[in-house]
Write a structure and sequence with these properties.
The chain has 415 residues and is α/β, with parallel strands linked by helices. The chain folds into two domains: 106 residues, At1g16640 B3 domain; 260 residues, Vaccinia Virus protein VP39 (Rossmann fold, 3-Layer(aba) Sandwich), CATH 3.40.50. An eight-stranded mixed beta sheet has the order 8-16-17-13-12-9-10-11, with helices on both faces. Strands 1-6-7-3-4 form a five-stranded mixed beta sheet, with no helix packed on it. Strands 2-5 form a two-stranded parallel sheet. It is elongated, with a radius of gyration of 25 Å. The structure holds S-adenosylmethionine.
Length: 415
């Protein structure tokens, strides 16, 4: 996150003049700079979330009469309040960090000690964040603590713990384009359940960008990441074709490792994360089609794995995979808003006659990394299964893995 440390001066204590000159123009949106007096015109305000104050502060930055920024916030009363509440004095360090396009956080770092002349103030500590230019605020009229825009009637329909969907023409069913997609209708249901219009949706393993398409359909902003260039260019075209004439939201697909996502997103910006990650290295082998009636279809003998890139989670054995997932999701947690949902679609698998309980590994790992499990939903896929062959008969009872998958619903705990 880009942030600056500012030394408190007597003028800040006395008049609320917080000297923000070192932040520079690029740190603020260009339209925040208003005229020298309120009467002759304000700039477009930014929001400051100030440590210890109950309400955010809206302010612009005034220019002087020659048209140069005065490098103080026009609203100043809060500065004295902030100083008093946090027991600060001149010489202490205040930090200003950019959380989003128009949102900043004001905190402090006094460590109980003043900064003296011998101990110079560290003025700039820029990180390498390349924050995305994407909105994440509600655009609906919903009030208060509603978690979505659904009516009571629509909500009622979502209460069942077993969900079913069908694929339609818009779904990618061609395994050569992408071997493992979920239906758009599933992504729409998750997004509508856990976000409002205008809010930001994230898919860290976007594949053909079904999640982003659903976000586009439902008026949400979204960002998706995938390692593979082909999937990213397919997704970009798919989203372009689906875009309405008057789109007021953005859906962005980025070719990068999911481990780097935190560099792109401000804190507390993602309202809902929905994804279907790779299933460790369980698909990284030649298909035997054992469970199919017509075993000799075109999938027989194919390896339906996305890539052999060592960063690809689909190349990793279970233990390494679980740790990598833990690392990725731990990094993502600050980007989720408190009580923001993170829904992961995962099946269990059979491997050498052993049931590999991926869903158990993920629940345990994400709990260790600070997530709280809220719901386990079953995606009932029986309506999608056809051509099942007999499997295990007569000595070994094995339920068909393809008949259901898990939707693990976690959230970022409120505190
Ligand atoms: C199960 S697929 C997602 C499919 C998607 N839900 C859809 O409907 O198209 C998982 C995706 O994760 C990608 N992937 C694997 N490792 C990754 C990593 N380290 N960073 C980003 N993407 C990764 C793969 O390329 C693959 O497209």
């Amino acid at each position: 996150m880009e942030s600056y440390a500012i030394q408190l001066t007597p003028a800040a204590e006395k008049y609320g003049n917080l000297n923000i000159s070192q932040c520079g123009k690029d740190f603020f949106p260009s339209d925040v700079f208003g005229s020298s007096s309120k009467k002759s015109g304000l700039g477009v305000p930014i929001t400051l979330e100030v440590e210890g104050l109950p309400n955010p502060v809206l302010t612009d930055i005034p220019k002087d009469i020659t048209g140069k920024p005065r490098w103080i916030f026009r609203e100043r009363n809060w500065v004295k309040q902030f100083i008093r509440l946090n027991n600060l004095v001149s010489g202490h360090t205040v930090t200003i960090s950019r959380l989003g396009k128009r949102k900043y956080k004001i905190g402090y770092n006094n460590n109980g000690s003043k900064i003296t002349e011998k101990e110079p103030v560290k003025t700039k500590h820029k990180t390498t964040k390349k924050l995305l230019d994407i909105d994440y605020n509600r655009t609906c009229d919903c009030q208060g603590n509603k978690i979505n825009c659904l009516t009571a009637k629509e909500w009622l329909k979502c209460q069942l713990g077993v969900w079913q969907f069908s694929y339609t023409k818009r779904d990618v069913r061609d395994k050569k384009i992408h071997p493992a997609t979920f239906p758009v209708s599933l992504a729409i249901k998750v997004i509508e359940l856990f976000s409002h219009k205008g809010e930001l949706i994230l898919d860290p393993f976007a594949g053909s960008s079904t999640t982003l398409l659903a976000a586009q359909d439902t008026g949400r902003n979204a960002v998706g990441f995938d390692l593979k260039k082909e999937y990213v260019s397919f997704s970009t075209n798919r989203l372009k074709k689906n875009e309405g004439l008057f789109a007021d939201t953005k859906q962005i697909v980025i070719q990068d490792d999911a481990r780097k996502i935190a560099d792109y997103l401000p804190e507390s910006s993602v309202k809902c994360l929905f994804t279907s990650p790779p299933y460790a290295n369980l698909l990284n082998r030649k298909r035997k089609n054992k469970s199919r009636r017509d075993r000799k279809n075109e999938q027989l003998g194919k390896v339906e794995q996305y890539s052999q890139d060592p960063r690809d989670l689909g190349t990793m054995a279970l233990e390494e995979y679980t740790k990598a997932m833990g690392d990725i999701f731990e990094n993502l947690l600050p980007a989720l808003v408190p009580k923001g949902h993170c829904v992961i679609n995962i099946p269990d698998m059979w491997w050498e006659n052993q049931r590999i309980t991926l869903h158990v590994s993920l629940i345990q790992e994400l709990r260790k990394r600070g997530y709280e499990l809220r719901n386990v939903i079953i995606w009932d896929r029986t309506n999608l299964v056809n051509g099942i062959g007999i499997f295990g008969w007569p000595s070994n009872y094995i339920t068909m893995g393809v008949t259901f998958e898990y939707l693990l619903d976690f959230w970022r705990p409120p505190s």
